[in-house]
Write a structure and sequence with these properties.
The structure is a single chain. 26% of the residues lie in helices and 25% in strands. It is built from five helices and seven strands, in the order H-E-H-H-E-E-E-H-E-H-E-E. The strands form two sheets. Strands 3-2-1-4-5 form a five-stranded parallel β-sheet.
């Protein structure tokens, strides 16, 4: 999660509490300690960590954090290949599902997207922070707003879908896709 991702998470927090949260992949935090202090204020008691888990707990209102990955390389709490269906026991368990840049690395994208939806409780939120274009050689997929507008549509049982694009080199400009 870089500064753009952090800004997006802060935006998502304005609309909904994070509650019980799961990340797809163990999400690194790629923001300097000074930027974190500037972002949240000097009174922040957060201790810098390699992963975003503690920041989600301390600053975003997450009540608990799990992560799902296909190996235990980064000590994910749940080992599962997102190319494959989830067990029924994992359905509707989370208030917030965060994909901070993992789905582009999962070959069976339709199943991975279905898994994200199945993890999320009704009324919860699914947050994707993914590459759109111009990242050739990074993962299997690049994403378009049309994919998410089609998937997370009212016809499919979703509401309040918002999509933003940002330039990775400019953390201050976002473009809301209508």
């Amino acid at each position: 999660i870089d500064i753009n991702g952090l800004n997006f998470l802060r935006y998502a927090k304005k609309n909904k509490t994070f509650g019980k949260t799961i990340s797809i992949g163990r999400q690194d935090l790629d923001v300097s300690p000074s930027a974190i202090k500037s972002f949240f204020g000097s009174g922040l008691s957060y201790k810098q960590d390699k992963y975003i888990d503690n920041l989600l707990l301390d600053c975003f209102g997450a009540s608990s954090i799990d992560s799902v990955d296909n190996s235990d390389y980064e000590q994910a709490s749940i080992i599962h290949d997102m190319n494959l269906p989830l067990s029924d026991a994992m359905h509707c368990c989370y208030d917030t599902v965060i994909d901070g840049g993992s789905l582009e690395h999962i070959y069976n994208l339709p199943q991975a997207l279905k898994n994200c939806s199945l993890l999320c409780r009704p009324g919860g939120q699914i947050i994707h922070i993914l590459p759109a274009i111009n990242q050739c050689g990074h993962g299997f997929w690049q994403f378009s707003p049309e994919l998410f507008f089609s998937l997370y549509s009212i016809e499919n049982g979703y509401m309040d879908t918002e999509i933003f694009l940002s330039d990775m080199s400019d953390g201050k400009k976002w473009f809301k896709v209508i």
